[in-house]
């Protein structure tokens, strides 16, 4: 809401009525937010917000258990709809009195909230009415800061409808396209190994027979190898730091991954379109065929391909799923959200945090002053 526009005012009773999945409002000081559209995206689950609907969540933003980042606060401002009208609660205790929060604490929290303004399309560094692909390269040294200030709005990359459509896909297209290939190649590899003609050479003088029962081991090795490739691509390709003076590298980074960080909940761009993924997958196939005998190489490749499908499905789920609290996926979702909103230079593992440990890119656990 523009500062020049008078805000809407709502009574405490009006705010309290919006406490369902269909309409959920919360307060930050005296500021009112309609977070209905954010319920599904919240990393802690929609229940955490619904339990606090109609109340002031200032302390929850500060933690524990989680201190929300500046990007998270800026994101929150996108849902601002007005102010709490305290004059309408003359016959009842005010929200401040009921929660027994000291005056000086309340004023600090309100002033802190006002510092976190949302990204205004009218004053942003790009023109949101036009495709962004050819604009971002002109941002120069402002690009890195801009691209890591996420917004809750769709992004149009290209003017051409065909080019734009090629960058989008539904999540279910990934398993529909690739899993039949996984099943076929698994059957094919097993039958090749079953012929007991595949030999693997450790040296020019020593070779050994690869038994058909080795297929599950080779398949799992392929999945493990993919997790390393996933980490490397995410860290060194998707999170490269393009030089501020290089228009083309900035544009390339934005098309590969920057647009995902700018709009992390754009559901049509959370998985890689099969058409664009095909050349990369074909390249890995040709490489592995050169390095290993057919039965061995294909077994590793098909395991890696399955790992890729699992990766894309998990990535989509981490953005839109609602895992059970305390589960592995719950922790992974919180970890990935921290990567988007607070630690963009760490937390590169998607399906697992395993590789973040040896390469020292693990997102640190939060600590709080217990004396507070």
From TrEMBL:
Residue ranges annotated as coiled coil are none
Q: How is the cofactor bound?
A: Binds 2 Zn(2+) ions per subunit that likely form a catalytic dimetal center.
EC number, UniProt record: 1.-.-.-
Q: Name one GO cellular component term.
A: endoplasmic reticulum membrane
Outline the extent of the Cytochrome b5 heme-binding domain. Answer: 7-85
Query: Which GO BP annotation is one of this protein's?
Result: fatty acid biosynthetic process
Which residues bind Zn(2+) per the record? Answer: 234, 239, 257, 260-261, 315, 319, 336, 339-340
Assigned keywords, A-Z: Endoplasmic reticulum, Fatty acid biosynthesis, Fatty acid metabolism, Heme, Iron, Lipid biosynthesis, Lipid metabolism, Membrane, Metal-binding, Microsome, Oxidoreductase, Transmembrane, Transmembrane helix, Zinc
Q: Catalyses which reaction?
A: hexadecanoate + 2 Fe(II)-[cytochrome b5] + O2 + 2 H(+) = (R)-2-hydroxyhexadecanoate + 2 Fe(III)-[cytochrome b5] + H2O; tetracosanoate + 2 Fe(II)-[cytochrome b5] + O2 + 2 H(+) = (R)-2-hydroxytetracosanoate + 2 Fe(III)-[cytochrome b5] + H2O; docosanoate + 2 Fe(II)-[cytochrome b5] + O2 + 2 H(+) = 2-hydroxydocosanoate + 2 Fe(III)-[cytochrome b5] + H2O; octadecanoate + 2 Fe(II)-[cytochrome b5] + O2 + 2 H(+) = (R)-2-hydroxyoctadecanoate + 2 Fe(III)-[cytochrome b5] + H2O
TM helices/strands, residue ranges: 171-193, 213-233, 270-288, 300-318
Main subcellular localisation:
endoplasmic reticulum
- Identify the InterPro entries for this entry: Cyt_B5-like_heme/steroid-bd, Cyt_B5-like_heme/steroid_sf, Cyt_B5_heme-BS, Fatty_acid_hydroxylase, Scs7
Cofactor dependence is on:
Fe cation; Zn(2+)
Top-tier EC class: oxidoreductase
Q: Does the keyword Zinc-finger apply?
A: no
Pfam families per UniProt? Cyt-b5, FA_hydroxylase
Protein family = Belongs to the sterol desaturase family. SCS7 subfamily.
Q: What is this protein called?
A: Fatty acid 2-hydroxylase
């Amino acid at each position: 809401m523009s500062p020049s526009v008078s805000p809407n005012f709502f009574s405490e009773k009006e705010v309290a009525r919006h406490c369902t999945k269909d309409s959920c409002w919360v307060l930050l000081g005296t500021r009112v937010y309609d977070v209905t559209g954010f319920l599904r995206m919240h990393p802690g689950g929609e229940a955490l917000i619904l339990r606090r609907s109609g109340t002031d969540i200032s302390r929850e933003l500060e933690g524990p258990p989680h201190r929300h980042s500046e990007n998270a606060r800026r994101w929150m401002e996108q849902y601002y709809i007005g102010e709490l009208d305290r004059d309408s609660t003359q016959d009842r205790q005010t929200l401040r009195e009921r929660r027994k929060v000291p005056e000086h604490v309340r004023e600090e929290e309100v002033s802190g909230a006002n510092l976190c303004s949302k990204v205004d399309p009218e004053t942003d560094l790009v023109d949101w009415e036009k495709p962004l692909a050819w604009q971002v390269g002109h941002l120069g040294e402002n690009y890195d800061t801009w691209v890591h200030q996420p917004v809750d709005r769709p992004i149009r990359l290209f003017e051409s409808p065909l080019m734009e459509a090629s960058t989008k896909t539904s999540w279910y297209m990934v398993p529909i396209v690739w899993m039949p290939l996984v099943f076929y190649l698994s059957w094919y590899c097993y039958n090749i190994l079953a012929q007991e003609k595949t030999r693997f050479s450790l040296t020019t003088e020593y070779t050994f027979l690869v038994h058909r029962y080795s297929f599950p081991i080779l398949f799992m090795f392929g999945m493990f190898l993919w997790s390393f490739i996933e980490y490397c691509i995410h860290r060194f390709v998707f999170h490269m730091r393009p030089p501020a003076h290089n228009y083309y590298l900035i544009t390339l980074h934005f098309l590969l991954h920057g647009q995902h960080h700018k709009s992390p909940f754009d559901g049509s761009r959370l998985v890689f379109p099969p058409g664009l993924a095909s050349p990369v997958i074909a390249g890995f196939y040709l490489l592995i065929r050169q390095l290993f005998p057919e039965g061995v190489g294909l077994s590793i490749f098909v395991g890696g391909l399955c790992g890729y499908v699992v990766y894309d499905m998990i990535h989509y789920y981490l953005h839109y799923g609602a895992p059970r609290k305390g589960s592995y996926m719950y922790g992974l979702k919180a970890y990935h959200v921290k990567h988007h909103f607070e630690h963009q230079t760490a937390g590169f593992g998607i399906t697992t945090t395993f590789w973040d440990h040896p390469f020292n890119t693990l997102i640190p656990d939060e600590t709080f002053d217990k004396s507070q």
